[in-house]
Amino acid sequence: MTKATGGAQSIRRAVAILRVLATGQERGVRLADVVAVCGLNRPTVHRILKVLSEEGAVEQDPATRRYLVGREVSLLGLARGTRSPVRAVAEPYLSHLAEQIGDTVFLTVRSGADSIGVDRKMGHYPVQVRALDIGARRPLGVGVAGVMLLACLQEDEAADLVRANAQRLARYQLTPARLMERVRTARNKGYAYADVGIVKGTSAIAVPVFGPERTALAAISVAAISDRLPPARASAVAAQMRAQADLVTRRLTQMNRVRFAP
Hints:
By secondary structure, the protein is of the alpha+beta class. It has helices at residues 9-24, 31-38, 42-54, 71-77, 86-101, 144-151, 155-164, 166-170, 176-189, 231-259; strands at 58-60, 67-69, 104-111, 114-121, 137-139, 192-194, 202-210, 216-225.
């Protein structure tokens, strides 16, 4: 584990606040909610938000007074557009899977203690479940993709992350004990399944995407109305998903070999 650098408290607080704002996407986040999640006092949060706003890293909606991630952060991110190739590599396989299954397919990656939706492909079935927007950030374990990403970690590491997220998970009526039970089930099965998804009347399933060194880089998930994804169909759908995830891994491995070839 990398030792934390001392003397950087303000920077860490600013980054923590940006992560909270990212959860609000286009809706934004209230000042009171930033304070509650970060565990900082209101004047400190307000001061940091003011500085970030002056730098263009934060914006405030004049109508709702909610805070949002600013344009400058998005522009900075463009400088490393190829930093994580998994989305670009996975894109055709996600499209194929959406066509094959007929329902909405998502790609989710881990960022610290959060999961972030980075791609979404719609299927051909008339009723599509848009359970996750691109850029949506949630505590790991909220949703099947987050459960699957936790299941790919060592038990102790997963448990530590869940404990650290306990306060945030409570906002989703999710206890650490219940989440760890789901994680262990997903680890044993090789896929995460929820017969009751985040959106009422839906079900969801997720499988991991491994990198060349067998580290989980992402999770592919499918969300559908419950009638289309009952428990009896879960293992068959997971097999279809795993086949495409394996193709993504194979492609990433090939790219890695070319990159480091003598």
